Amino acid sequence: MTTITLVRGDITRESADAIVNAANSSLLGGGGVDGAIHRRGGPAILEECRELRAGHLGKGLATGLAVATTAGVLEARWVIHTVGPVHSTTEDRSELLASCYRESLRVADELGARTVAFPAISTGVYRWPMGDAARIAVTAVREADTEVEEVRFVLFDDRAHAAFAAQLG
Ligand code: ADP
User: Fold this and answer.
1) Nearest residue CA, atom 15 of ligand 1?
2) Is 37 left (phi over 0), alpha (psi -120 to 50) or beta?
3) 34 is an active site residue
4) Which one is the CATH code of 3-168: 3.40.50.150, 3.40.50.2000, 3.40.220.10, 3.40.605.10?
5) What is the pLDDT of residues 112-147, one digit of tens each?
6) What is the 40 CA–ligand 1 centroid distance (Å)?
7) Which of 87, 156, 158, 161 to mutate to test the pocket of ligand 1 (most atoms within 8 A of CB)?
8) Which residues contact residue 27 at a Cβ distance below 8 angstroms, ignoring those fewer than 6 apart?
């Protein structure tokens, strides 16, 4: 049974077995959560991302998939990088967004992580409307078949927190 918790704050300050990064397919850093994780986590994370790119992820990580690295000096054992879809008004990419949560939890299970902190994937630069993103995220986690005991959504502002709270209500 997975417990879902909500906190408002900066995900790089969280303590958890794994912290999920809203990465981009290059795995080589970006803005938003991605930039913050690399800044606070230190260079070891990027180093391992580069190794992944030099190895089996030569073309980068596809949208909806997830991969783990060290968490550097963050208060976590692993960062799980997942690539959210860019929101589209002409194409329904909800399955890809749900897949980010499912695949991250699958990787967490492989690692043996029991507590996992997620940001609101795709709701920043990738422009997914917050309410819809919250619905997809909470549904995907509720329906996931996982050994993870706590999924903690770490929401950056009150609006995001309210959107997720409405889904749990
Ligand atoms: P994406 O490219 O998937 O849209 P972003 O990192 O741009 O990812 O944004 C995803 C969400 O994370 C946004 O709602 C943004 O406000 C939020 N966010 C940005 N920085 C942090 C942080 N340090 N901790 C938690 N959430 C964050």
Assistant:
1) 124
2) alpha
3) yes
4) 3.40.220.10
5) 999 999 999 999 999 999 999 999 999 999 999 999
6) 15
7) 156
8) 49, 52, 53, 57, 60, 61, 67, 81
